[in-house]
Amino acid sequence: MPGRLVGVLDHARSQGDGTLLLTVFVFVGLALVVAASGRALGPRVFYVAALAPLWTLGWSVWAMTRLDDGPLVERHTWVEQLGLAVDLRLDWFTMVMVLLIAGIGLCVFWYAASYFHPGPEVPRTAAVLLLFAGSMFGLVCSDNLFLLFMFWELTSITSFLLIGTDDTKPGPRTAALHALLVTGGGGLAMLGGFVLLGQAAGTYSLHAILESPPSGTTVSVGLVLVLVGALTKSAQVPFHAWLPGAMAAPTPISAYLHSATMVKAGVYLVGRFAPAFAVVGPWRWIVLSAGSASLLLGGYRALRQHDLKLVLAFGTISQLGLLMILFGAGVPELAFAGCVLLVAHAAFKAALFLTVGIIDHQTHTRDLRALTGLGRRWPVVAVGAALAAASMAGIPPLLGFLAKELALDGLLGDGVPAQAVLTTLVVVGSMFTVAYSARFVWGAFGLADTHHGLERSRVGSEAPHPSKAFAVAPMLLAALGVLFGLVPALLAPLVDDAWEALGFEGHAPHLSLWHGLTVPLGLSALVIAGGVVLFLARVRVERLQAAVPRLPSALGAYERSVRGLLSGSDRVAAVFQSGSLPVYLMVLLGVLVVAPGIPLLLNGGPERWPDLVDSPLQLVVGAIMIAAALAAAISRRRFAAVILLGAVGYGISALFIIQGAPDLALTQLLIETLGVVAFVLVLRHLPEGFTPTMAPARKILPAIAGVAVALFVFYFAISAGSVTGTPTPDASLAGTDSHAELEHGETETGDITVSEEYLARSLPEAHGRNVVNVIVVDFRGFDTLGEITVLVVAALGVAALIVAGRRDPDGSLEDPEDVEKVEVGG
Amino acid sequence: MSRQTTETRRSMILDVVVRSEFHVLLVVSIYLLFAGHNQPGGGFVGGLVAGSACALRMVASGPQELRRSIRIRPMTLLGLGLTTAAGAALAGLWNGGQLLETRYLSVDVPFIGPVGTSTAFFFDLGVYLVVLGTVLIVLEALGSPEEELQ
């Protein structure tokens, strides 16, 4: 029995001060409050929800003062029997993620209060967004691999719910399912990898595994599986197709989940693992090739998108690819650049997404061909977005430039695998980044340039100005990029500590704006120049892309595999669910005879022949039952057969009374009565007689099955009776009465000591004289709980069948109130 | 078979007898529920007796009549029953106990004396409600006039 389910709250056996777990519960608790608040507050409910990231931010400041003494560690007992504990660990690298989750979260929640229109789905969205933030916080703080997996899948599930916020439209529903199947499936592969790693290491503690990494083939296989999880989550080639689809979510959600935090979970995991495992097995090959492919493909595809959000989505795939390269290579300098880019990307990409949300909200379009003149109308928003985009493109003096410089510097340094190829790829990928950054700014805020062949309407010129509260969040995030770019010393301590927390030692690269006239600076200039050329030639680039034959797309592959799965299931179901009742019955009876029958025969026969008759009354009842059963078998009328079957059942009830089991007798009597009533009600709709012209050949199989079941039941009863020595009333009849067996778990052929035990303990321990009832509600209450649950499910199935039966052939309900009718009294 | 003919075919004597017995049977079922812990009976048998009473009522007076006399929806009974049973099971966890551990409570009621109850009774009550709800749903499924079934 699952013992201490509530052990999680048991602080007596906890280590640490509990504030980490408390923070998780702040998110969960506030989610419940927000969900329960109803529609009274409207979108302002997001201001309430913003309290959770605000708390986390405040708490992080306090936690940072304590991190210099080493990581914060917490341990809470959970399911002791499974060796599961809530192990939480906060070091500086986790702190960077926590600051992103809380900081971007605060901006997004604030912004969402202006973005959403009042509606019934608003409190739900706010609550799920809080649950997501809590899961994400738990994910980065988990030190136990199973706990990490649990939070990982929770973020997938909340992401599924959030993408499908607009669940009345098929588009978001399909996109949500796609995202769930890919990221959830990847998570399952990751769980497999975790188990392999944990078994090889002898511990499931993340930091213990990373401190003394295991090795061997098992570990390599485990790492590949973990990478599948990380690559699906971070939308890397070839699993990237779900991310553009996820743009069906409301924009604050895209900004938060699908650019700033959730998709970084894969990068986070790769960053954690790479220092210990980069040189093991195929790790580098997989990470570097997937990262480079994503970097290039994302950038390339972003250049031909017309939806501003999709430009950013493909840009995210590209940037995540770069992050994968930086973190996954396991080179200290690159990982340092990765830490900087992690912060920079979260800030500029969230700012850009939120800007798109403002444009969409005010103009009702995100098509860059339709927008014009917004830059003149909204100069502040335009400048903010341009700064964020410039940070993305790596233009000095912004934070993105610093990150790119560090990355190029690292790539040209020592210990980089496939140095020339990787550097070239990153340079080309960065050119794409510059080009789509420019395309974004031009598309969102630029003027119509009809001479380039892209006609634009004049949507922007009449759009109302967004309110200050609406626009402040993206502006703040864009300003961070400028601030950290100009004064890198503000960010340097955090990044240095995070880099050390990953397990790198020695001298951290220096975070500064000006390194002198170096090769990376030259490459940066080359990147910017190449990007500008690509942007200026955008019409030609688009035409070229349209002319290139389409590669087999990942989206197509996903759709084909889902279709294949569905049609495959159809075929399997068609074989097993033929719809023929006789076939079903035969299968059921066959299993009944074969599955328990073979072990019964192999265990040897009954030890001795039990006493067949205790009292002469049994002979009389038995004779009546045999006669009724035979008559039922040869009856030509359905009604007569049902009544005769009922007589057999009542006979069993009489036998129970003779054996001194009034409870069983009563139950049997009632079940039999209700059974007959049910049969009679069904018979109203059936012909009076059985099919008259049943060929004798077709009767053979049913006859064999019937005889086999009879023999099996007889043999079973005899064997069961002989095991207990003297047949107890229950045991001797166990096999013959399926009803009683179903309803009273005690009829199993227990050994006599168990029965005696029950009898002896019934009154003193359970305060009951009726041992049957005590067994049902107390000794074996867990069985009963399961049984009534099954009963409820069966009843729901019956109700669903009635509704289905009343549908028109075209599948629609003829009357929406039909569902109600089913539920109205019996 | 139209509704008209089923109405006319009903026996008035049966109808009247069942009408008078229906509530008696329900009381018996509740007695069985309470007596169950020490004498033959219990939630399961009680629920079946109540279900049989409903079946009788339906056979004698028709589904419409049964719907009128049992106002509560079978779905509600199912949910209520499962919640009650699960609640009784969870009550065992209170104060560091095991799931399903039976808790006893004795209250002195004025003029009547000590009245004892236990979580096991509420568990049984849940079983009673679920069984009754299931029987009612099955009766509803099978007892509807033919034209509604098709």
Name its key features.
heterodimer, A: 826 residues, mainly alpha, two-stranded antiparallel sheet, 35 helices, 2 strands, 70% helix, 2% strand, B: 150 residues, 69% helix, disordered N terminus, disordered C terminus
Verbal overview:
The complex is a heterodimer of chains A (826) and B (150). With 826 residues, chain A is mostly helical. Chain A has 35 helices and two strands. Chain A has a two-stranded antiparallel sheet with strand order 1-2. In chain A, helix 33 (771-779) packs across helix 34 (781-805). The model of chain A is unreliable at 1-12, 725-750 and 810-826 (pLDDT under 50). Helices cover 69% and strands 8% of the residues of chain B. Chain B has a two-stranded antiparallel sheet. In chain B, helix 3 runs parallel beside helix 6 (119-143). Chains A and B meet through helix 28, helix 33 and helix 34 of A and helix 3, helix 4, helix 5, helix 6 and helix 7 of B.
